[in-house]
């Protein structure tokens, strides 16, 4: 066996939840920072691009807060028990404070210098404690000075809020409200009725504090919002009630001035309450999914909502939609598996109910979502609704096949849809809808991977529990427009066994269909049965053909965990191992929760990785790279043309990488372009115009001038342009050096002279007369003695050179008559 290679790392590359902690706007509202798994991401508000990915925590990030003393810095807390201070503009960690206990929430206030508040576990409950951040030198420090503020608090960050510049803190849990005043060191407790009545459930769900007044807003499980006042007295407190939400209020946030209150819940509607009145409210509906968090910018111009489907929505102050950042939507059950779009190299899988999401692996964002079912989804428990279960792409991505089904008590409702990619609209359009393509559930389908320029070569095969597989081909419609549709061309079966899987060979000449414990191989032209393979125990759950040099092998995996490799030439079983995903760009396969990478023609694995990650691996897929990657070891050559991705049970994407954490994050930290972040000024426009003109001149004059310009480059000019301004010497010293470097030496020819010489040489080559050859040879013979003596030849002007060329081209044959 091959020993695991330590240089290959299992890293989280995407799919992490964007709603694990409250998002934070930068002080100028140009950037949005949010927690994403064990990373902190910074997005551009204007372009929605990911500008920074800051990694360093060993576990999930649970809270982020701007440094109140320096708004260019950021605090982050994690379940790994550490607090990190970042320079988020450069993506550099400044300090790491080790607390030693799991940190579930983080709060930073300007009124508490060098201290932050965190929520830590304590026995069976949680505590809100103050952590003293030491100013000692060094990057890795210990923060052991903790002081308890409140006991028996909720672990959710929404259930604790600080009011009126940190004068008091409010905490809610179940039906209890605690308010602690720091200066008076006074703790007041309030409670609401715990009994569920017809009016609703009174349990607290979230809390927010007014920025300037003594007012606390609490959200409840029955959709009500209570505004508490006069809570400095235990018995004289008052509260008023606002009610619009029909279910739990998920989060609350006051505006910067405190004149408005924002609320959100499972209705996917953002509600703005004005002047704490039930009659003055505005709505922003159809935000897609339940609102988990609401964040306000410090200038009040923007707010953002974090949603349960991994979406971030940026909203203007006038309650108008501005931007949307969509991550990987976490579906309850990924029935389609991981499929790769051949056109965009995006991962395709279940998204919103009835939708297909196209997820970009490079940007960790959704490209677009395709509505397959095209029906309104009803959020009601126990209701059977149509859902997307199968998806397949043709070789070039021009055709898409989807299967949707709805579970019924008697017979299932099935639909097979064929979609064609429209280049004009850059989206898929429905071409054919087939009701009940099989009498029972469809188990698998695949396209024949051949040249799609010929419509006759494009074939779709579906397998079903009705013990048959069907071949679908394109036919021309009878309408005058000449459109095409799909119809059934052949139906095959084998001993009345259920058909479970299907796969075409690389050249499309063979079709393999598994029937329970038997694999059958068919000719894709005549549909004759060529051979069968039977290798119990267990039913076949996956089959795939080898690629490239291993195309003569057929691989199958059983539900008992065995993997078999058959040689199609000898019809013999070559290998028995243990669940596979085939790589279409190489000859590799992977299997199991531990990763074994091997070639089908070699029983010895070329790579082994055990204990892949803490989570359970659900699905895996090879994704081809746009360009082959340079690998440092021969053991990693299988990663050169494709990359292996895993989807865990928490729907986070993992991959194998040879790069360290710092190397992987460096390219993303360089994406913040200065030209995009700086305002457009007359000087920047002038500089850009000058650079464009200079590049065009260089291209027009050719390689000779480019070479001469490189020779004329001065070290003084380079030093002046690349040296930081604060370390440059005085201008009186730099000016003479700079001016001298721009002067052209008399011994060297100017660019115009070089261009003229190039033009003269091209004109000379066009003249093929014998007289000119003779004159040229005479000139070379005459000038050679002068060159040997080291004397300078007389230079002619451009007009004189042209006149001389005219004289050379004149016909002097009449002189021969004399």
TrEMBL record:
Entry's localization field: Nucleus, Nucleolus
Annotated segments matching region Disordered: 750-792
Keywords: Nucleus, Repeat, Ribosome biogenesis, rRNA processing, Transcription, WD repeat
SMART domains: WD40
GO cellular-component term (any): small-subunit processome
One GO BP: positive regulation of rRNA processing
GO MF term list: RNA binding
Coiled-coil intervals: none
Keyword NADP: no
Residue spans of biased composition, Acidic residues class: 753-784
SUPFAM superfamilies: WD40 repeat-like (SSF50978)
Protein name, per record: WD repeat domain 75
Taxonomic placement: Eukaryota, Metazoa, Chordata, Craniata, Vertebrata
């Amino acid at each position: 066996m091959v020993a695991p290679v330590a240089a290959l790392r299992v890293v989280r590359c995407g799919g992490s939840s964007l709603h694990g902690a409250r998002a934070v706007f930068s002080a100028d509202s140009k950037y949005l920072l949010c927690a994403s798994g064990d990373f902190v991401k910074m997005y551009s508000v204007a372009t929605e691009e990911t500008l920074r990915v800051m990694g360093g925590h060993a576990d999930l990030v649970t809270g982020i807060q701007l440094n109140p003393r320096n708004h260019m810095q950021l605090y982050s807390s994690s379940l790994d028990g550490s607090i990190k201070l970042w320079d988020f503009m450069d993506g550099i960690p400044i300090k790491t404070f080790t607390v030693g206990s799991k940190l579930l929430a983080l709060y930073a206030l300007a009124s508490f210098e060098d201290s932050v508040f965190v929520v830590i576990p304590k026995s069976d409950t949680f505590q809100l404690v103050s952590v003293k951040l030491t100013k000692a030198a060094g990057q890795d420090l210990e923060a052991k000075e903790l002081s308890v503020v409140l006991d028996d608090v909720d672990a959710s960050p929404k259930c604790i809020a600080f009011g009126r510049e940190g004068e008091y803190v409010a905490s809610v849990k179940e039906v209890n409200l605690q308010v602690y005043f720091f200066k008076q060191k006074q703790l007041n407790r309030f409670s609401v009725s715990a009994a569920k009545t017809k009016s609703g459930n009174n349990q607290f769900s979230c809390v927010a504090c007014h920025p300037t007044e003594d007012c606390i807003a609490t959200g409840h499980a029955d959709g009500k919002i209570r505004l508490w006042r006069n809570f400095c007295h235990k018995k004289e407190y008052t509260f008023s009630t606002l009610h619009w939400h029909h279910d739990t209020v998920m989060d609350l946030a006051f505006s910067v001035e405190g004149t408005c209150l924002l609320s959100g819940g499972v209705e996917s509607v953002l509600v703005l309450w004005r002047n704490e009145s039930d009659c003055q409210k505005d709505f922003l509906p159809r935000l897609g999914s339940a609102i988990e968090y609401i964040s306000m910018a410090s200038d009040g111009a923007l707010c953002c909502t974090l949603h349960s489907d991994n979406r971030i929505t940026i909203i203007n102050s006038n309650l108008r939609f501005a931007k949307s950042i969509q991550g990987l939507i976490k579906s309850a059950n990924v029935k389609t598996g991981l499929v790769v779009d051949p056109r965009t190299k995006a991962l395709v899988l279940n998204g919103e109910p009835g939708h297909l999401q196209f997820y970009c692996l490079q940007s960790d964002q959704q490209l677009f979502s395709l509505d397959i079912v095209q029906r309104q989804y009803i959020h009601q428990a126990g209701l059977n609704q149509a859902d997307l279960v199968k998806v397949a792409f043709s070789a070039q991505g021009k055709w898409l096949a989807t299967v949707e089904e709805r579970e019924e008590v008697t017979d299932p409702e099935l639909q097979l849809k064929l979609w064609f990619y429209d280049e004009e609209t850059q989206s898929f359009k429905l071409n054919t809808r087939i009701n009940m393509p099989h009498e029972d559930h469809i188990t698998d389908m695949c396209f024949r991977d051949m040249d799609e320029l010929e419509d006759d070569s494009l074939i779709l095969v579906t397998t079903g529990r009705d013990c048959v597989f069907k071949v679908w081909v394109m036919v021309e419609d009878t309408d005058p427009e000449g459109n095409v549709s799909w119809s059934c061309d052949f139906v095959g079966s084998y001993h009345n066994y259920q058909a479970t899987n299907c796969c075409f060979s690389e050249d499309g000449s063979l079709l393999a269909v598994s029937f329970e414990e038997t694999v059958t191989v068919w000719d894709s032209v005549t549909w004759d049965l060529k051979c069968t393979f039977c290798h119990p125990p267990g039913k076949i759950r996956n089959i795939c053909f080898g690629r490239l040099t291993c195309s003569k092998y057929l691989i199958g995996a059983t539900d008992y965990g065995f993997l078999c490799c058959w040689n199609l030439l000898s019809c013999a079983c070559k290998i028995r191992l243990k669940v596979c995903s085939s790589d279409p760009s190489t000859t590799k396969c992977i299997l199991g929760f531990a990763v074994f990478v091997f070639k089908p023609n070699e029983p010895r694995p070329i790579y082994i990785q055990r204990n892949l990650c803490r989570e359970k691996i659900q699905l895996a897929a090879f994704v081809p790279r746009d360009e082959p990657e340079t690998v440092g070891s021969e053991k990693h050559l299988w990663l050169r043309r494709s990359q292996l991705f895993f989807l865990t049970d928490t729907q986070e994407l993992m991959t194998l990488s040879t790069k360290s954490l710092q190397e992987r994050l460096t390219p993303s930290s360089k994406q913040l372009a200065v030209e995009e972040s700086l305002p457009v000024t007359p000087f920047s426009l002038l500089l850009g115009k000058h650079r464009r003109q200079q590049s065009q001149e260089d291209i027009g004059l050719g390689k000779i001038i480019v070479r001469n310009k490189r020779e004329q480059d001065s070290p003084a000019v380079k030093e002046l342009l690349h040296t930081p301004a604060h370390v440059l010497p005085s201008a009186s010293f730099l000016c003479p050096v700079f001016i001298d470097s721009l002067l052209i030496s008399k011994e060297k020819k100017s660019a115009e002279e070089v261009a003229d010489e190039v033009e003269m040489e091209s004109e000379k080559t066009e003249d093929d007369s014998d007289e000119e050859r003779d004159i040229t040879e005479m000139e070379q013979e005459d000038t050679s003695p002068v060159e040997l003596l080291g004397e300078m030849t007389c230079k002619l002007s451009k007009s004189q050179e042209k006149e001389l060329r005219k004289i050379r081209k004149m016909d002097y044959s009449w002189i021969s008559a004399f």
